[in-house]
Amino acid sequence: MSVTDVERGLIARYMVRVLSGPDLPIRGARHLLFWLQERAEGLQLPLPEALAQQFGTYYGAPFKAAEFEAAYLDVKKLLIDSLDKAARTTQRPEPLASNLESLVLAFNIPNPDAALKVLGLIAAFHRFDQVGFLANAVVDSAGPMMRAVARLVGEPIRVVEDMLSPSSELVATGLLQVRESDYLGGHGGRYYVPWRINGSLDRTYRDFSEMRNALIGDPLRSPMTGADYEHIAEDRDLMVGVLRGFIAQPEPGVNILLYGPPGSGKTELAKVVAAEAGLSLFATGEEGPGDTEANRTGRLADIVFSERLLTGEARTALLFDEMEDVAVQLISRGGSKVYLNRLLETNPVPIVWTSNDLGYVDPAVLRRMTLAVELKRPPASQRKRILAELARRHGVVLTEHDLEGLSRKIDATPAILENAVIAAKLSGGGAAALERAALGIVRAVSGLGQRREAAIPEFDPLLACADQDLVALADRLVTGNARAFSLCLSGPPGTGKSAFARHLARRLGLEIIQKRASDILGMYVGQSEKNIAASFEEAREANAFLVFDEADSLLLDRRDAARSWEISQVNEMLTWMEDHPLPVAFTTNLMERIDTATLRRFTFHVRYDYLDRKALERAWRVFFLADQIPTGGLDFANLTPGDFAKARKQAEMLGALGDPQRLMDLLHHISRGKPDARGAFGFTG
To answer: Which pTM value belongs to this model?
Structure first.
């Protein structure tokens, strides 16, 4: 066993206090002195010879307790004087002792001398093994635990009980943490100094100001700017205004909650608004190495500790990430929600809280928030801006065409976009590598595969065969003042219904949000209705054109309903559709399945049909770049632009793009494979 002089001095000091106590039983003294005798050589703290001889037969026979007691009482003063001399001639643990003293005084802890002794003992547990062993030996031989601490620090037990109670200043300020344990000291002991403080106690500081800076850390900064959050500009500006108002007129209890899916940019937004408001933002409640669900009460105490450190420091704020983690812990372990509620009402420094899931957060906590802002995935225009900035920052070359395509295809959070950009940089790839990386992460997070790229990416009026003039309709809708209209676009697959919806959204200057049945339909009762409501809310907040594909799955004829939720789902959709202030479109291939009562709710109903001869000619030129159309090439009666896109892809793979006869064969095969193939080949009129 090897110990330092400092550890030897600490053992001697604690033994003096314990042995000098007026009520230490002889049995307890015997066990502790035996503990010391076993370590006498390593600690260089030998017992008087008369006492050491008593332990020669400690495990043998006969050991006579009366003889030990007589020997102990005879040399007790000599032993204590010897230990006291060893303690006084050994330096106290520095800079540990001075740093603890600075914290106790800076935090105005009552009875600072006793507080320093208690805090010093607990800090020594984690630095000196023999101190921890001695503390546990005192508990075993002269406990219970609270009395053992009182013996070790030489203070009355009532003083120690006040110091270690959950409501004490040591605990309330975050200087000391308490957990369930049968041990007093060492790893896993009942009392411990939080990791943030413990990791800073062995450094030398010029003054407390330097120590405070080391404890609180550097202010958080973000490479993002307010312009990266234009999609929530009103909420962003409101948060900045609230924080600026606090600077002008400080009030307790300023709390801002940012909630949304992981990676939506909550933490970065907190940094951005704090910077724009002129505040330095510091992290608080962070978990240390090895922290587990069982000891996360310390995260809340760390808030108070951070607030105390920032007392008197103007223009500061705190960031607490993953608030739901604390809420779950409070519920699962029966923690006091009152403590959290009071913290939210009295915090002198503004706190920005983030949460990925509000399901576990008590409504009483949410009511105490000054602001609550939801962050969703940014719209395509904002994703384009974010991608451009990330590509610039990481040195990935993306063209304007790349940015436009990627922002449309990758519906992801800023964090996923940044990780994908980094993957593209490391792999040396470009837009293709970035897209693949991003979609892989999206698939892992959501469980959904890539949304299939539309067969007709751009609207071409010459390829659209509808019962209305789509160009004229679009012109009327764009030039009109009304924006609260609805469209039903019905017809065979691949006729260009979604392409027209996207075209109309661009003409109106609106983002487009597309939802499929898989995005809406849920496995639990009420989940589909909730998803419908969320879709309309998302479109309204993003000022977007909402498009529901596969509307026949969402607006089933209620007369055929076999379950109540099939009716409530349609009712929910119709209610939201009537009250929605922005355009909404529904596309369907199966108009006959849609509830007939819903038809009168649509402002416009556009029916699409197969390509006529004029449109077929256009399709040959657009998809096959054909100057001459082969004989019979305009005689198909059941083809769509989507079919031509499919035939082109097949021709590219087969090397048949320049062979008119092979192209005809491919189109014949597609035409015959359709359910209405009978009579499909012939003049369309």
So the answer is: 0.70
